[in-house]
Amino acid sequence: MLYERGRVSEKTQTVINYNLSSAYKDVLRPGDEFWDSSKTLKYLSESEYFIDEADRDKGLQWPHSLKVVLSDGASTLQILILVMCETV
Q1: In this predicted model, what pLDDT tens digit does every residue of 33-48 receive, in sequence order?
Q2: Are the CB atoms for 49 and 9 separated by under 8 Å?
Q3: Cα(86)–Cα(2) distance, integer angstroms
Q4: CA dist., res. 29 & res. 40, Å (int)
Q5: CA distances from 18 to 14, 21, 40 (A)
């Protein structure tokens, strides 16, 4: 689990540690390691990360699961993107 340093309350930290005791957790520096939603979306759109070579003429195509996350909120998107980057 990746989360931003200084943004998680003590109560939330306790819940994370209790419920995810065996999960790998890493605290990231705001802005440098943990990007805000604007920077994350800009990076993804400019890097052509989601452009399929076979459908290059269609341009950027957000995956369905990411479209769902985008509609639910940016903080969830940040976590998803960081997890995806770590697994690539």
Answers
A1: 988 888 888 887 787 7
A2: no
A3: 10
A4: 15
A5: 6, 5, 29
- The domains of the chain are located at 2-87
Beta bridge partners of 34: 30
* Cα gap 41→10, rounded to integer Å: 29
Q: What gap in Å lies between CA 4 and CA 7, rounded to an integer?
A: 6
Residue appearing with tokens 């909120």: 73
Distances in Å between the alpha carbon of 30 and those of 19, 20, 50, 62, 83?
Answer: 24, 22, 25, 25, 16
* Owner of token pair 């770590």: 86
pLDDT-above-90 percentage for the chain = 2
Q: Which two tokens stand for residue 34?
A: 């943990």
